[in-house]
């Protein structure tokens, strides 16, 4: 059994009211709500520890499911405009899917019309790289399989028109002459050709490409 509830605070360090939803048994066990906003979180926690008697919570309505309770909670929060009201501790609106958060779309987003500095971007990039290196963050692609039926192109075939377009050389792809013959190839094909036909190593070919300009690929063949 779930419910919507109203918590009244009788102290002077926080706004007076809080609207939320929870299991009925939690309210009966003394639950007054959870404050997650930076603005009130620490003060609320301290008051809960030192002055819990200042909080009184009463059940407004009961519901069979959590989804119903969250929807009713959201309706109440919108009705009383709790986020903008100085009378409420709520700094966000409940969402029917179980997630909570202030509307940060378009102009309401804190970074609307702004951008991170290069210094901040580098810090974020370095932090993410470190998380990957230490294993705290892992790429989702590591666990994804595209074999067999998992491949989105499984059971399909390119049309003749598509095959023709893919075969057509792209002008922006750089090409080099093979160092052992006059054959002109792009990077990947050049390596396969030079290695298999002439025994040129990857290191030698890499050095060759670095010190040799690609041939002009803009001319029509």
What does this structure look like?
This protein is α+β, with helices and mostly antiparallel strands and 221 residues long. Among the domains are: 2-101, GIY-YIG endonuclease; 168-221, no CATH class. The chain is 34% helix and 15% strand. It contains seven helices and seven strands, in the order E-E-H-H-E-H-E-E-H-H-E-E-H-H. The longest helix has 17 residues, at 118-134. The termini are far apart. The mean pLDDT is 84.
Summed over residues and divided by their number, the pLDDT gives a mean of 84
* CA-atom Rg in angstroms: 31 Å
Biggest sheet strand line-up: 2-1-3
Largest sheet: 3 strands, antiparallel
Query: From the helix content, strand content and strand pairing, which structural class follows?
Result: alpha+beta
What gross morphology would you assign? Answer: elongated
Q: How many distinct helices?
A: 7
The portion of residues forming beta strands comes to 15-25%
Number of strands: 7
Name the CATH architecture of the domain at 2-101: 3-Layer(aba) Sandwich
Features:
3-stranded antiparallel sheet; alpha+beta; elongated; 221 residues; single chain; 7 strands; GIY-YIG endonuclease
Summarize the structure.
With 221 residues, the chain is of the alpha+beta class.
Secondary structure elements and their pairing?
Layout: E1 2-9, E2 17-23, H1 24-28, H2 41-50, E3 55-63, H3 66-79, E4 93-94, E5 100-101, H4 118-134, H5 160-167, E6 175-177, E7 184-186, H6 187-198, H7 202-211
Antiparallel strand pairs: 1-2, 1-3, 4-5, 6-7
């Amino acid at each position: 059994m779930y419910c919507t509830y109203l918590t009244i605070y009788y102290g002077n360090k926080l706004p007076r009211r809080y609207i939320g939803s929870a299991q009925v048994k939690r309210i009966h066990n003394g639950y007054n709500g959870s404050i997650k906003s930076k603005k009130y979180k620490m003060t609320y926690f301290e008051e809960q520890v030192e002055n819990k008697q200042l909080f009184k919570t009463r059940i407004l309505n009961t519901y069979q499911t959590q989804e119903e309770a969250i929807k009713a909670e959201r309706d109440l929060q919108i009705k009383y405009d709790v986020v903008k009201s100085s009378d409420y501790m709520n700094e966000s609106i409940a969402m029917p899917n179980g997630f909570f958060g202030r509307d940060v779309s378009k102009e309401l987003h804190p970074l609307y019309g702004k951008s991170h500095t290069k210094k901040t971007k580098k810090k974020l990039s370095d932090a993410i790289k470190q998380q990957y290196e230490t294993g705290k963050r892992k790429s989702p692609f590591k666990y994804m399989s595209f074999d067999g039926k998992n491949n989105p192109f499984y059971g399909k075939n390119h049309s003749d028109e598509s095959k023709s377009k893919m075969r057509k050389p792209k002008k922006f792809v750089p090409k080099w002459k093979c160092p052992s013959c006059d054959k002109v190839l792009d990077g990947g094909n050049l390596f396969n050709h030079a290695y298999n036909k002439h025994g040129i190593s990857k290191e030698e070919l890499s050095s060759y490409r670095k010190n040799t300009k690609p041939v002009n690929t803009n001319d029509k063949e």
